[in-house]
Design a protein that fits this description.
This protein has about 350 residues and is an alpha/beta fold. The protein contains 15 helices and 11 strands. About 50% of the residues lie in helices and about 15% in strands. Helix 6 runs antiparallel to helix 12 and helix 6 crosses helix 15.
Length: about 350
């Protein structure tokens, strides 16, 4: 009996040793990556995330598997960048407007420069990033960038003129804040996921954003009015933890890099189309009224925005940033994508 006990113990120990010494790769299935996003699943940042996941898994022939976390379940809007740097998620999607000081150069696309749609603005932003490689992104691998469609005012009260907008509490973040202030609104700042509650409680009487949210967040149920201002866009980035990126095999890195521009363009095209369908739904099913400013009216609204870009250039040139060149590059890149 004693002998059998020894033999059994020996077999057990030997098995343990074999398990412990088996190289990790032998047991490894696909490379698993987590991808965090802050807004709910039906919104465009998450739609593009699912698209990217699907294409990556297909192009790597199942070598990579992406687990997505929409709705702030892994990281929330303001903690996204630091969370990815720290490795709490391998990949994350950030809205740069929520940390305006951190992403100065790329946030310049949110100046009132008249970028016409998400497709043009997204490709412009991506080129801007590649040209300037801003320090704010030095600690992460940037997988892609894109923007929203131009912003408009969605409100629970009709806003047909600057007089109607005066003092009205409207939610907006980043560069859009200055624009609302210039028009005399009472700007209230918060990330998008907090907006439904603020609208419901009447803390704000509207929001300033791209119009796909009328459907994706069902804002059309509360905001029965839209005032077309058609500026500005909001920039986004998809970032990856640097160590995780460095640990990827070259063929996988190649697939991710190849997708950078494609994902940027895909998201722009998706966003522009989705804004149109969301507005058809809002008008037809929710009885939303859209106000368009007259030519003269629009000129007046735009005139109030002129000092914003001029001031941005002045302040940032003084801080050593090539601010004038950045603004010129944005306009000139966009003109190419517009076919001008
Ligand atoms: N306009 C920005 C960004 C934004 C636009 N659509 C969505 C949807 C989900 C999250 C963010 C955004 C904003 O107002 O926050």
């Amino acid at each position: 009996m004693k002998k059998t006990g020894f033999v059994l113990a020996g077999i057990f120990l030997a098995t343990l040793l074999v398990i412990a010494s088996t190289p990790m790769t032998a047991a490894a299935g696909p490379i698993k990556l987590t991808y965090a996003n802050f807004p709910p699943a039906p919104t465009f940042p998450c739609v593009q995330m699912e698209k990217w996941k699907q294409v990556v898994e297909k192009r790597t022939n199942g070598k990579v598997s992406i687990q997505t976390f929409p709705g702030g379940t892994l990281l929330k809007a303001k903690g996204m960048m630091d969370g990815v740097v720290a490795g709490s998620a391998d990949i994350g999607c950030i809205c740069m407007a929520y940390q305006p000081g951190r992403f100065k150069i790329t946030n310049a696309v949110a100046l009132p420069l008249g970028l016409p749609n998400s497709e043009v603005a997204s490709l412009t932003l991506w080129d801007l990033y590649k040209k300037y490689r801003p320090k704010g992104f030095a600690k992460v691998k940037v997988l892609t960038m894109f923007t929203t469609a131009p912003s408009n005012i969605m409100s629970t009260v009709p806003i047909k003129s600057l007089a109607d907008l005066k003092g009205v509490p409207i939610r907006a973040s980043g560069g859009a804040a200055q624009i609302l202030k210039a028009w005399g609104a009472n700007r209230v700042g918060m990330p998008m996921p907090e907006t439904p509650e603020a609208l419901q409680k009447g803390v704000v009487k509207g929001l300033f954003s791209s119009l796909e949210v009328m459907k994706d967040f069902k804002f059309a149920e509360l905001c029965k009015y839209v005032t077309m201002t058609e500026t500005p866009v909001y920039p986004f980035a998809v970032i990856m933890n640097m160590d995780k990126w460095n640990s990827l095999p070259d063929d996988v890195k190649k697939v991710f890099d190849e997708l950078g521009t494609q994902q940027c363009a895909w998201t722009g095209v998706y966003m522009d189309r989705h804004v149109k369908s969301a507005m058809r739904w809002s008008k037809k099913k929710q009885g939303v009224t859209v106000f368009r400013l007259s030519k003269k009216g629009k000129a007046k609204w735009n005139e109030l925005l002129e000092p914003i870009t001029a001031n941005w250039i002045k302040t940032n040139e003084a801080k050593g940033l090539p601010a004038k060149a950045i603004v010129e590059d944005i306009s000139s890149f966009a003109q190419m994508y517009e076919g001008k």
